[in-house]
Amino acid sequence: MNRSMKKTMLMITGLLVVVAVLYVNASENVMEGYEVGDYVSDFKLPSTTGKTVSLSDYPDAKGFIVVFTCNTCPYAKLYEDRVIELDKKFRGKGFPVIAINPNDVGQKPGDSMDEMASQAKAKSYSFPYLRDDTQEVAKAYGAAKTPHVYVLNRESAGKFKVEYIGAIDDSPREAADVQETYVEDAVNALLSGNKPTVTNQRAIGCTIKWKDV
């Protein structure tokens, strides 16, 4: 190998190393966030109804099923009816769903507030659908996919603790093939005064569309 080829190879290697480092750093920045056992901070986000919504708006809630989702991801669409069912099943038991759309509208115009409002109306959402324009809430939670779920439980001090993070169930494509209902099992355990048996399960979905920094 002559000197020119060696120099070219070194340059290519150096560029690959830089790209790898940038990729790792970007992934770490996205994935940093709450872990099971952490207490969450409250937020205030606009909803499709024109109101702002916070956890503190639910003084009687025993906990929450916080779902980071969107209009445009095929996986989010496949899970939409299951999210609706989760709210119907657990809202009356003190664990309502709160859905949050963090996608960058510049990359996904279909995730604008107007489009969100149309979707919420078309599907008769019984839960608030919130817009996280700054993406600060998604980053605080460490959300990476749509959908990505966080089950929160109210502690005696009135704070909410993360008890489960990850997938809704084990069948992202076919609801009929579900064998493991991770979120449902976690909430049922908490309602029974127990801790969830499964506390983390990798979320399957589209990557959140982050704004360019």
Cα end-to-end separation: 41 Å
Low-confidence residue ranges: 13-30
CATH superfamily of the largest domain: Glutaredoxin
Total number of helices? 5
Helix content: 25-40%
Structural class: alpha/beta
Strand and helix layout:
Elements: H1 3-31, E1 45-46, E2 52-53, E3 63-68, H2 74-90, E4 97-101, H3 113-122, E5 129-131, H4 136-141, E6 145-146, E7 148-154, E8 160-166, H5 182-191, E9 200-201, E10 206-207
Parallel strand pairs: 3-4, 4-5, 8-9
Antiparallel strand pairs: 1-2, 3-7, 6-10, 7-8
What does this structure look like?
With 213 residues, the chain is an alpha/beta fold. It has 2 domains: 1-31; 35-207, Glutaredoxin (3-Layer(aba) Sandwich), CATH 3.40.30. The chain has 5 helices and 10 strands. It has helices at residues 3-31, 74-90, 113-122, 136-141, 182-191, and strands spanning 45-46, 52-53, 63-68, 97-101, 129-131, 145-146, 148-154, 160-166, 200-201, 206-207. The strands form 3 sheets. Strands 5-4-3-7-8-9 form a 6-stranded mixed beta sheet. Strands 1-2 form a two-stranded antiparallel sheet. Strands 6-10 form a two-stranded antiparallel ribbon. Strand 4, helix 3 and strand 5 form a beta-alpha-beta unit. It is globular and about 45 Å long. 32% of the residues are buried.
Brief write-up:
The chain is α/β, with parallel strands linked by helices and 213 residues long. The chain is 34% helix and 18% strand.
Features:
alpha/beta; 5 helices; 213 residues; Glutaredoxin; 2 domains
